[in-house]
Amino acid sequence: MNKRENSKIELKRKLQEEKVKRTTKRPSIKIYILLIVLIILFYCLGWQRILKLGPGESILYGMAGCVSGILCAIWVYSGRLEKMVEERTKELREAHEQLVRQEKLAVLGKLAGGVSHELRNPLGIIKNAAYFLNMVLKEPNPEVKKIVEILEKEVTRSEGIISSLLDFARPKPPIWQQVDINELIRDALSRITVPENVEVVSQSDEALPNILADPGQLGQVFGNIILNAIQAMSGGGRLVIKSEIQSPQWVAISFADTGMGIPEENMGKIFEPFFTSKAKGIGLGLVIAGALVEGHGGKIEVQSEVGKGSIFTVRIPNLEKV
Prior knowledge:
Number of domains: 3
Distance between the termini: 37 Å
Strand order of the largest sheet: 2-4-5-7-6
Shape: elongated
Helix content: 55-70%
CATH architecture of the largest domain: 2-Layer Sandwich
CATH superfamily of the largest domain: Histidine kinase-like ATPase, C-terminal domain
Number of strands: 7
């Protein structure tokens, strides 16, 4: 990331800090005003008590009542003020982290888009050359045929990487329409080769109503998560896919695998661009899935335990209209 981009991030961070500071000060001023009013009130009540008591005890009891009331008010509202400051500080920290993340994603997206376009032309030439060799060599040497097959396979894999880079570089807004969540899950499974040693169990609610979403984007989300789960079960295992209505506002789709699990130190990194613990892939599958779900107003939650497996839960708003 160059100096210009860093300066942009720093400027936006400072603006966000100032915004949160302003919102922090507003409730504080209100509390101080309320506190002053209470002090005056307790002061007046104290004098009322002085007037009602006898000459020898009026000053002592009147002042004691006034002071105790003031101290009580200060104690209550100082606690509330402290809690409010903590909440605003947390909001500032989260806003700052989100801002930095968005700026980094934007810069990486531009880089990924440029690289993708540069790679497409040479890959197209290689693909055409392999096709030409298959057409010309009617009875090719077995070794030559094997090399051509490797070329075609690697070109296809590279095209998949480029597609991921472009999806990451240029996220598109959802095209809203009525979709059947269970049908999208079945379509995603049909596009993936599931190993024989992996059992896929469906616990979908077949009475699940259609929701408003982008079928292409949600299908990509489900496919990325399923593929990620299968790759985590290289030695075999079980994948349970469940869809349900959790509340009138939310639909949840969970993917529970019995894979190797995610170490605690990696939990905060799995949605970062280009982070991967696998030998294959470039670490964009979950990043793209997270961005697409956020575009729907939803979120992805992850639970994991090393040696036991992981549960990825996609929560999508149950929208009737956009």
